[in-house]
Amino acid sequence: MLLENKTAVIYGGGGSIGGAMATAFAGEGAQVFLAGRTPEKLETVADKIRAAGGQAETAVVDALDASAVNDHIDAVMAKAGSVDVSINLITNEGLFQPLADISTPGFVGAVSKGLTTQLITTKAAARHMVKQESGVLLFFGGSDHANTSPGLGNVQVGMDAVESLRRQWAVELAPHGIRTVTLLTGGVIDTFPDIPEMEAAKRGIIDASPLKRAATMADVGNVAAFVVSDKGRSIASTQINISFGACYG
């Protein structure tokens, strides 16, 4: 199995993308630690993993609370003996409006929240990974400078900011054997609500791909599992495009 004897910490592990990654990691032998603010969602993912024979633990952790994040990662380290993978899937609050219609405090607050959680969780994991001289920090969303469209508000700006943060981590942590990788996505349509209002958005994502396809949650999990495994060890300090060619990065 790709991730046997590996430990993965997933912030936002109760969400659809977090759950997909956790399920794929556990299926490849990893012990997964799911962290988030909603215990019911975390336990739903963990129960599914356990039912399939995998290892999963949950913890209620507010990623905006540095003390709570550090206490949790220290507990993971004490129990598992290593922190091999850390992923933060907590995104900015999406304000899908023209920039002129978004209040300045609203815009700044939403982007700041996403950056703050990324900084806190990455610092916590890096503290242990530097001592190990190994580890993978996986990010999700990515920066696609070639494709922009009106009405995205703070969404792409926030992703660009996180990707810039990831690049800075890369140059600082690579000397310690730590890989930083972003999965660049044009949208995962099976995470969208199944309502008529979302059909145009789903079709737009599919039509943007030369292959006329969109990544599924299973695709996300499978690619993520390979990237963080030792078989993906040459993938570092970069984005991996999982958009079926819709994004250019």
From TrEMBL:
Stored Pfam families: adh_short_C2 (PF13561)
Domain of life according to the entry: Bacteria
Taxonomic source organism: Streptomyces smaragdinus
EC number in record: 1.3.1.34
Protein name: Putative 2,4-dienoyl-CoA reductase
Name of the gene this protein is made from: fadH_1
Enzyme class: oxidoreductase
Gene Ontology MF annotations: 2,4-dienoyl-CoA reductase (NADPH) activity
Record-stated family: Belongs to the short-chain dehydrogenases/reductases (SDR) family.
Keyword annotations from UniProtKB, A to Z: Oxidoreductase
